[in-house]
Amino acid sequence: MAPRANWKGFLRLSLVTCPVALYPATSDTEKVSFNQINRKTGHRIKYLKVDAETGDEVTSEDIVKGYKVDTDTYIEVTKDELDDIALDSTHTIEIDEFVPKTDIDSRYLIRPYYLVPDGKVGHDAFAVIRETIRSMDKVAIGRVVLTNREHIIALEPLGSGLMGTLLRYPYEVRGEKDYFDDIQDVKLTKDMLDLAKHIVEKKSGAFEPELFEDHYETALIDLINKKRSGAPIAAKAAPKTGGNVINLMDALKKSIANEKDASPVAKVAKDVTKDAIKGKKPKKRVEGQREMLLPIAGKGGKDAAKAAPKKADKPVRAPARAKKAG
């Protein structure tokens, strides 16, 4: 089953228009998530919407939006009133301007999306807009409505499609001066900087996100697998601390002495290279963390405790469903 679009509408550059669909470029569905359960019964906890004063449950049709203006004082806003102020960009991404990508402060970036033609028509117009942006070597700035709120979106070519990145408004970005004013102006010696640069050089490498590992997620999966199979859970030893840094120069020198081996990411890359030279096949990258979870063989109990931990076969993973956001 193909991914579900978060938004469908039109992309427009002046009089050139084409139907498009917007898909999220990232996903958290592969991460382990938990439900809250009743310790006594093992049943899942269910939440009800209740009146804060009377404690009575309130049905969906009786729930409306309200803006708080004072203690226990709200201005009620209906769905029809919100629909009346809906903007044209609800169904159209209108390209307003083109700016150099380097001009966009990284603090304004929210999340990426993929923009593709919707259906069999409009591919020519889509290609014209895409290649125009590519040839100008700039980013197109437009507006799109998601979850009833208007967002600024930056569009740039990515292969045969477009990547759209939602941007924050200026009022959403805090100024750095309120946080940086108290930082002391320290003068560093050339020796200190040279030692620090040497450490950076030894840890430098190419950006290879496929080598990144979510250690906490891996630990969660290991914990769940052990509890499923009845394996004992060993208490984690307290981490060793390096102590207080008294002399910065000594700390830099000790850091260099401890950097005999490459960084963890670089070491993995070297191991892969060594395996390739020896003719060994590199380990296959895990596409989804959930595939590492052991399948449920039964209800557990004594039989599960006796069973030895087994390596789980990769189950067929159901496609992730994206919630419709606009």
Largest beta-sheet characterization: 7 strands, mixed, barrel
| Count of extended strands | 9
- What's the total helix number? 8
Strand fraction: 15-25%
What is the string of SSEs from the N terminus onward? EEEEHEEHEEEHHHHHH
Unreliable stretches (pLDDT < 50, length at least 5) are 276-286, 299-326
How does the helix and strand content classify structurally?
Answer: alpha+beta
Q: Termini, distance in Å?
A: 21 Å
Cα shape = extended
Question: Helix amount, in percent?
Answer: 25-40%
- Average of per-residue pLDDT values: 81
For the largest beta sheet, what order do the strands appear in spatially? 1-2-6-9-8-7-5
Q: Give the radius of gyration.
A: 27 Å
Structural summary, described in words:
This protein is an alpha+beta fold and about 325 residues long. It contains 8 helices and 9 strands. A 7-stranded mixed beta barrel has the order 1-2-6-9-8-7-5. The two termini are about 20 Å apart. Residues about 275-285 and about 300-325 have low confidence and may be disordered.
